[in-house]
């Protein structure tokens, strides 16, 4: 498996793993993606990516960092989460 170098790189690798239905690769990618999501400056982007790929630890951490009044422009990754998931984030239910 190639070394993950960024969030964008991990997303491309997830796409390939999904296309070929390689579940073990997805598990490894989740682990490799976690530190990049923690370092992402935009917590909403980090949260949306974590939700999309099932990176629970990173999802919870990003939800704790998120402040609705600090986001000026929604990240493109928000398109991959449901309205219910976003509502739960806004209501604080996404933090366990």
Describe the structure.
- With 96 residues, the protein is an all-alpha fold.
- The chain has one domain.
- The protein is built from five helices and no strands.
- Helix 3 runs antiparallel to helix 4.
- The longest helix has 17 residues, at 23-39.
- The protein is globular, with a radius of gyration of 13 Å.
- The termini are far apart.
State the gist of this model.
The protein contains 5 helices and no strands. The chain has helices at 7-19, 23-39, 43-53, 56-65, 83-91.
Characteristic key phrases:
96 residues; mainly alpha; 62% helix; globular
Order of helices and strands: HHHHH
Helical fraction: 55-70%
First-last Cα distance: 32 Å
β-strand amount = under 5%
Count of discrete structural domains: 1
Structure summary, number of beta strands: 0
Which spans have pLDDT < 50 for at least 5 consecutive residues?
none
- Round the Cα radius of gyration to an integer and report it: 13 Å
> What is the molecular shape?
globular
User: What structural category characterises the helix and strand content?
Assistant: mainly alpha
SS field, number of helical segments = 5
Describe the main β-sheet briefly: none
Average pLDDT works out at: 92
